[in-house]
Design brief:
It is found in: Membrane. By secondary structure, the chain is mainly alpha-helical. Helices cover 68% and strands 3% of the residues. It is built from 21 helices and 3 strands. The longest helix is centred in the N-terminal third of the chain and has 38 residues, at 48-85.
Length: 520
Amino acid sequence: MSQDIKEKIIVTSASEKVLEIEDTTVSSQDNHSIITNSDYSPDLQWTEEEEKKVVRKIDIRLMSWVLLMTFVLNMDRTNIANALSDGLPTDLGFNLDYVNQATLIYGIVFTVFTLPTNAIVKKVGAHNWIPFIMFAWGIVTWAHIFVKDYNSYLVVRIFIAITEAGFIPACLTYLTGFYTTAELSSRLAWFWAIQSFASAFSGFLSFLIFRLAGVAGLEGWKWLFLIDGILTDVVAVISYLYLPKALSTPNRLSFGKKTWFTERELQIAVTRLIRDDQTKREQYRHITLDDVKQTVLDTRLWTHLLITFIGIMPNGPINTYLPTMIKQSGFSVYVANLLAAPTYLVNLVFSIFIAKAADRYGNTSLFALIGVTWNLTGFLLLEYLPVNASRWAMYSAAFVAASSPSWHGMQIAWMASNLAPIGKRTLALGAVIGAANICGVPGSQIYQAYDAPRFYHGNKILIGLSLTTMALFLLQRTRYILTNKHREKRWNSMTHEQQQDYELNTTHKGSERLDFRFRL
């Protein structure tokens, strides 16, 4: 299907700008389209204030709930770090090397089950899939109370990986059906920043819950898993009733009678999405074999995956062992978990601030490098502080390393904006989450028991990974700049008739088209 959508800006007064979208082709009749004939209005005009009102409604009604679900996810994912500091390995009869082994297996299983997620989402809908897997991992989370030894611990960690794997890629695909490309970067920053808040809250919560140790014969860390798991299942049930399939679809709480928007707001919401990205007219089209082929052969995507794999790897060791590192510096287990919490709050604030700056000024790749540089500084401090450094000096170094702003959401938004058509982008969103988790396999082996408590050998590896990530960001940015210049030169060398012939007859698709320009 080929569309040619033109934009005109009509100034009706000194203070008001109206957008008019002109569709010069026949609308899609695809059954899996994001829109119906009544949703999309080719000649629609709207003011900037009207669009802001629509976006604000999506933020309040949808994004806030997605953030709550993400908060619950990371509460469940962070509790393992808190449980380790509360003596989980000792209670079950194994050491940190066995923890690393379980983390390695978790990473492999998680990645395997991440890859097919978005293909499933296209079949059953994110509004169904997300609550289903949430309820499943909630059950597995509170099932930690039945763990007795390493084997049973490994079993529940594997099932946690299986059930949690599909959540993030499904959410990313879901959100692209509600937000424009420019809006997505800051929303994804919130998406990952709220995970930092969840990690901080988990630290405070564990401080209280661990005091239940002995009640009903359960260790403190088992109470943590039990409470987190029950909370997850409650949110999952509500999510099943609350989440709509798409902009134009009522949720189950309204019994199919009313969407979140008035008729005009709905037309604005849908039309502005198509204006931003024509491929979103096929947002819910099923994945095809050609989509898979385009995805696998796109070398630019592989660079983004490599950035994710190498750049996210340092987060695993420092986040998993942060409370333990603080405790080994000379603090009690309760104080260590409290001191770990502020790092996540700093991460949250600066992640959002940097992402908003990237949205405003562009050049997302350069803003993402701030977080990588911050990380590198923390690892250098951990590595080169004197052996006799005070416990507060060690805490400060760990604080810097663990509080680095997240660039992951910005990198995903950057990647997604440079991938088309929609099928390739959808598969890529699953692949990038897989890359962000499979890096936990080698990452789980970086901090070893023999290297504790300073982890000198491990920190050298983390320094090298951070430097490599910086180089890959700059390499990808440079490639996009050179490709844009090359395509612009070729395009300008063509006559108007040749350009029209190319638009109508080229076999190139999506981001491989000569008239596609990459965002920096």
